Amino acid sequence: MKHQHPALAAKAVSVSFLETMPDEILIALVATQDKNAMHALFVRHNVRVFRFLTRLVGDAATAEDLVSEVFIEVWRHAGQFEARSKVSTWMLAIAHHKAAALRRRRRPGDQVDDSAIEALEDPADGPELAAQKKKRGTILRECLEQLSPAHREILDLIYYQERSIADVAQIVGVPQNTVKTRAFFARKRVAQFMAARGIEPAWL
User: Fold this and answer.
1) pLDDT score, position 140
2) How many distinct structural domains can be found in the chain?
3) What is the distance, to the nearest Å, from the Cα of residue 193 to the centroid of all Cα atoms in its chain?
4) What is the dihedral of CA 16, 51, 164, 76, to 10 degrees?
5) Are 104 and 4 part of one and the same domain?
6) For residues 144 and 138, what is the distance between their CA atoms, to the nearest angstrom?
7) What pLDDT digit, counting tens, does each position of 181-199 carry?
8) Which of 75, 84, 128, 147 sits in a 20 to 30 Å window from 195, CA-based?
């Protein structure tokens, strides 16, 4: 007989204890409608999901709305998580679908809010470093905007989210070879764009 994990058998688990639990245990608890587990999962992952969505949709306010939608989806469908991937990969896949749906609804010509990237600056940076990062970030953003949304997303997942090719394939729902091809093309194009601006991307 399969035994239930002790954490799942507990009727009440403290938030501080939940914060030390693996994602797989938290999502199992969420499936039982455990609000404390949901809170712990949100605290652990909301910033990562927010930053991913911000770079996909282009403005912080919209990204915040989508973050809420993503975690509502997690709450409703936690019981359907089958552990075929990491919980964080599953969440980013949900975020990907939310952002893709939004892009389909948007009218051509909708503008990207430039303040979105600035909102992600590290407050610990000094004025000079922050200015350098902002300038480089502005140029990189302009280069990335020359790519299609699909190619931008691949680079985001690989370099910002530090996801493996297998994870990226799961998140965006394409074969691994397609991910590799898109990544190669995107890196090459961004390198060309930035070289034209006199900057060599350190992450290529």
Assistant:
1) 72
2) 2
3) 24
4) 60
5) yes
6) 10
7) 999 998 888 888 888 877 7
8) 128
